Structure formats: C-alpha cells, structure tokens
Amino acid sequence: MGEEDEYACVNRAQLRIKDTSGIKKKKKKKANKETEKAIENEVKQQIKQQAKSDKTKAELAFQKMQEKMQKQRILQKAEMTHKQRVEKFNQHLDSLTEHFDIPKVSWTK
Q1: Would you say the pTM of this structure is higher than 0.85?
Q2: b vs e for 63-80, b when ≥16 Cβ sit within 10 Å of the residue's Cβ?
Q3: 55 and 63 Cβ atoms separated by less than 8 Å
C-alpha cells in the first residue's frame, strides 16, 4: 500500500512545453487529393513532352539502340534457367588449367 500512495499524485496528462515567444504555428490545411493527382499528371506530361522535343536525332537513335540491346539481354538471360547457368559455369571452371587455382599455402611445410 505504500507504493500505491507514492504514485497516486502522478499527473498522467501529456507534457507541454511552455512557449514564451508568442509565435503560434499555423495549422496545415488538408488539400484535395484529386487536384494534387491531376496536377502531378499534368507536370509529368509536360516533362515527357519537353524530353521528346529537346532530343536530337542522334540522341533518339541512341536511346532506341539502348532499348533494343536491353531487350536482347533480357531475352538472352531468359533462355537459360539458373540451374543451366550454374552447370555451364562449372563446366567452364573444369576446363580451366590448374594454373588458375589458388595455391595451397601452409606455414608448417
């Protein structure tokens, strides 16, 4: 019963910091989410249009080739499963000479 009496007078309310400056923070107004999304979409479209119009013929050709090469790489990687790639890598390691092996190092010999 002695412990209960010690904590009986504890204030359980949220602590507040005293502010003597007199400056109050303004509450933020909740903006309409639909208008924000519409604005974001418009900005994205404008950026896309500017990006298309700002590029030269050489830049467009380079970008097309990059996309084409990327598609080829994806198709090439998709041809083999992980198991097949591991088997191929193991065969490659077996074909290497022992010259590339890590030599055994021992201080006792």
Answers
A1: no
A2: eeeeeeeeeeeeeeeeee
A3: yes
